[in-house]
What does this fold into?
Amino acid sequence: MDNCIFCKIVRGDIPCRKVYDDGDLLAFHDINPVAKVHFMLIPKLHLGSLMDANESHTALLGKMLLLAPKLAKEQGLNNGFRTIINTGKGGGQEVYHLHIHIIGGNIPPMVRQD
Ligand code: 5GP
Ligand code: ZN
It folds into this structure.
């Protein structure tokens, strides 16, 4: 995809602070972190969002989920972390290339307890 920011990062046209790289997946730090640790895990394949995934992507999605805790630990998140996938306009998605946010370090509870 010519105009996709994350495809440009995959191609090396836009720099990123890399966390992980293999044939299928890339992880890099978010340019605008919301917590002490905040990085993104993406497939190199352009998929607009989770709504564009189908059965042919089962292994790829599984690989992403299984990699997330390994990378989180490597980034120092030994006590756990939060994964977020914003999907579509209703989900607040801004970049239309599927990505898992992996966040941790100093995050509040997701749902207020009061
Ligand atoms: P979304 O709302 O689509 O789930 O999140 C998109 C995320 O991509 C945001 O957290 C934003 O900070 C991040 N982002 C947008 N452009 C770039 C970029 O060029 N480089 C990096 N590293 N992150 C980006
Ligand atoms: Zn893309």
About this structure: The chain has a mean pLDDT of 96.
